[in-house]
Structures are given as structure tokens and as C-alpha cells.
Amino acid sequence: MTSGPPSETGWPRAGRKRPEGGFTLLEVLASLAVLAVSFLVLLQTDGLNASRTLHARRLLGAVQLAQGRMEEVFSSGSGELVSEEGEQEDAIYSWQRVVSDTEFEGLKEVRLIVRWKEGAREEEYVVLAYLPR
Predict the structure, then answer these.
(1) What pLDDT does residue 90 have?
(2) pLDDT at 13
(3) Cα 42 from Cα 21, distance rounded (Å)
(4) Taking the CB of residue 65, how many other CB atoms lie within 10 A of it?
(5) Which end of the chain, N or C, is less surrounded by CB atoms within 10 Å?
(6) Residues 130, 123, 92, 47: is their CA dihedral positive or negative?
(7) For the chain, where are the E strands, in sequence order?
(8) Structural domain boundaries in the chain
(9) Pick from 61, 58, 57, 65: which is nearest to 85 by CA?
């Protein structure tokens, strides 16, 4: 903006510049653009953290379910072991226990698979143990 004695219209006359202490419109727009990009990066990071937290919770639940089912296997002994499957009460997890003979005499293989859905993907956690017959 220019300064000088006012003209007949009341506006300052052109030709002389007065010192300005504010920011130009271009500087303000550039700083808003930088802030917007930074905000979007923070939002994306927060969303990624939320999905990873959910995955960690589901994995922990699968580990706990597998641990409980394997404790049943070890406490019952290998004489009564059969293959079976089931679903947890909340229907988040399903599990399958597969009992098979091995090529080694006197050993049975127990494979426990816990499955759950995460979005469109199906995840699984597998535990493998060998028990005497």
C-alpha cells in the first residue's frame, strides 16, 4: 500500500510506499498449505496406529485362546486326543486342532490353528506341539 497525502477521494496517493508490518496474502496461503499437509500426515499416522493397535489386540486374543486350548491338550494326556474345531463365544475367533501321527514312533503331532478376520483379510496363529502317545 502506498502512503502520502490523501487525494480528494480520501485514498492515499499512488507512488509512495509506506512500511508494512504484516504478511502478504501469498505468505499466509503458503503457511496454511504447509499446515494442511502436516495435519494430513498426522491424521494418516493416527489411523495407521489405530489399525496396528487393533491387530495387536486380536493377535493377543488369539495367543491367549491357543494357550488355553494347548493347556487342555497337555492336561488331558495324549491318549484321548482327537482332532476337533470350534468357535469362541464372541465369534471373533475360530480354532481347529489337528492330531496326527508322526514318522517317529511314540510321538503325536498336535497342530492348533486360531483364525480371525481383520477387515477383508483372514489371519491365523498356529501352534505346533509333539506329545508322547
Answers:
(1) 83
(2) 62
(3) 32
(4) 19
(5) N
(6) positive
(7) 84-87, 93-101, 107-118, 121-132
(8) 25-132
(9) 65
Tell me what pLDDT residue 9 has.
Answer: 65
The cell for 121 is 483379510
SS3 97: strand
- Number of Cβ within a 10 Å radius of residue 61: 17
- CB–CB of 60/67 below 8 Å? no
* Residue pointed to by grid coordinates 510506499: 17
For Cα atoms 118, 112, 105, give the angle at the middle one, nearest 5 degrees. Answer: 155
Q: Which is nearest to 93 in space by CA: 49, 60, 50? A: 60
Query: What does DSSP assign to residue 18?
Result: P
* CA dist., res. 116 & res. 97, Å (int): 15
Q: Which CATH class is domain 25-132?
A: alpha beta
Give the mean pLDDT per block of 10 residues along the chain (133 residues): 60 61 91 94 82 91 93 77 85 92 88 92 94 82
